[in-house]
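Protocol step 4 of 6: structure prediction from sequence.
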Amino acid sequence: MVKYIDLDVAIQNSNSAFLKKMPKCVISLLKKIIHQDEMNRILNKYEDCYGVDFLPKIIEELQLTVQIEGEENLPADGRCFFAANHPFGFVDGLILTNTVGKKYGKLKAIGNDSFLLAPHLKPIIAAVNVFGSNPKAYLLELENLFESDSPITHFPAGVVSRIRNGKIEDKDWQKSFIKQSVKYNRPIVPFHFTGRNSYLFYIIYLIRSFLGIKLNIELMLLPYEIFNKKGKTIHVKIGKPIMPETFDNSKTSAEWAQYVKQQVYSL
């Protein structure tokens, strides 16, 4: 069996002294928390499935029931940005890409380069490093993608929702997708996911924020959150496309990004 996910190797290859000092018993516990063996089992089971063919297999494995409202708002021409809030970390991305892929037969997802650990996803991932600078190859790939006819899925927050101002929501959305919408004449189709991660995820976030720890420890729980959604119903609502000409000079790109975020949450 191929070991696609290997926490030991990931820790050794990381730049974190904190992670490298962790006792073996803690690492063993983390392997169980992130369902390392289960993830590798699934990835090996569907080793011959790639891209849009792989997505429904994972939805089936997780026994997810997906209830979508507003599918009629998906335009005939998929040359759009499909932008969503990011409450889950993976399951929302899985459903977003599967919905778009099923409609148009193809897509590219702007996603964390860590997803490339699963070669099954490589055909649909336009990789970015959300925690640092991006290599020129990544930036060139993105420019070529924006110019293409491919549908693009995107989480403009860049990171998973946290507790903010007493409620769980995205941080301010990044402005780049507004600029690209205007430059490449791509409408933005808003998606809203209802739901949250476990309380444990947010408690760890609050504790490490209180202690001033910059390392996003709670992200280690995201694989756990995948299996925590197993057998659940996920509610999604799709809004009407927002045309590029909407984004005029009455607001800055950053302000328009928050406007689109508000439209998503109003769904």
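Step 5 (inspection) to follow. The chain has two domains: 1-45, 51-266.
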